[in-house]
Write a structure and sequence with these properties.
It is globular and about 60 Å long. It starts with 7 loop residues before the first helix and ends with a strand. The longest helix is centred in the middle third of the chain and has 18 residues, at 103-120. With 205 residues, the protein is α+β, with helices and mostly antiparallel strands. α1 runs antiparallel to α2 (22-33). A hairpin with a 3-residue loop joins β1 (65-68) and β2 (72-76). Helices cover 35% and strands 16% of the residues. Strands 1-2-3-5-4 form a 5-stranded antiparallel beta sheet, covered by helices on one side. A two-stranded antiparallel ribbon has the order 6-7.
Length: 205
Amino acid sequence: MTENPLTQEQLAELNEISQLPIEEQKIKLNAFLQTLTPEQIDFLKKQQTSCLFCQIVNGELPTKKIYEDDSVVAVLDIHPATKGHVLLFPKKHYDLLALVPDVGHLFDVANKISKNVFELTHAEGTNIFVANGSAAGQKVPHVCVHIIPRFTEDKVQLSWKSQIIPEKELDELTSQLREKLTPQTGEKKEEPITVISIKQERRIP
């Protein structure tokens, strides 16, 4: 492994930049690059094919690692939503969740971590979610499961304003999804689901 010529302070700054939205990342990264030596810039150029999480997997960035097995790694987020916020991700690089061949193990580990974080932080609940794609808030193009301990007064906002979707559009989408998801042979079809739209503010517990 090539020795990393970046200082701990520079690595921390680079990590902070990686947490920003894509457009802001570009601006901050350009300014950051101007502070580096030619050797450090050459090192980063060689790392361009390796994303932040891949660098963590390869031991190229300092982390607060809490779990690792043959296929996944979990670290504490250093800029957490709440104390105990965990980032769990596959060791192999996958841009989106749909590309992961076996999500079962990933979420089994997420559930195990959630249980222990809940107990150790004396949380009142947890959020387990994936920001899947930039439009969904994904900042690094590597699948990552967020496990966030929740508290009544934590001020973390994971909410949306409900929309009214025409019944015809809901029926059409229901039929399309049912066709895609219904097993071709051997399993009984589910009964139709009645969808009711309610206009109100909703918050993920």
